Amino acid sequence: MRRALVRWVINAVAIWAAIMVVPGLNADGGWTVYLWVALILGLVNALIAPIVKALTCPLILLTLGLFTLVINGAMLWLAGVLSREFGLGFFVRDLGAAILGALVVSVVSFVLSVLAGVHRKER
Q: Measuring CA to CA, which residue among 68, 74, 91 is closest to residue 19?
């Protein structure tokens, strides 16, 4: 349970970093918006992304995995659409900003996960 909460906060910080770096991502509100968007993005990545990746597997193989960046960007864009529907102040301008934002979110969350020791097995 602790690990899931740490990953949730890490993803919220990664979304904040992406909003600060990528010009096409905007959020109105405080940290609660980032936490809600992190929850929505986590659910989208857990429920929808595996189906999309399975359906586009030949394209992923053909591009040597680079199409995964487009899929991750589409998932961030979808999280933006869903968060707007829930009345949160998160907005993704276009797919280009979503792809760049997803790249930033991935890198920041990976680095913070390593620093926090989330991926270490408990001994």
A: 91
Two tokens, residue 85: 């529907």
Q: What is the pTM of this model?
A: 0.89
Domain ranges of the chain: 2-116
- Are the C-beta atoms of 77 and 92 separated by less than 8 Å? yes
Q: Chunked in runs of 10, what are the mean pLDDT values of the chain (123 residues)?
A: 88 94 90 93 94 95 94 95 91 93 95 83 52
Q: How far apart are CA 65 and CA 46, in angstroms?
A: 19
107: CB partners within 8 A, 6+ apart: none
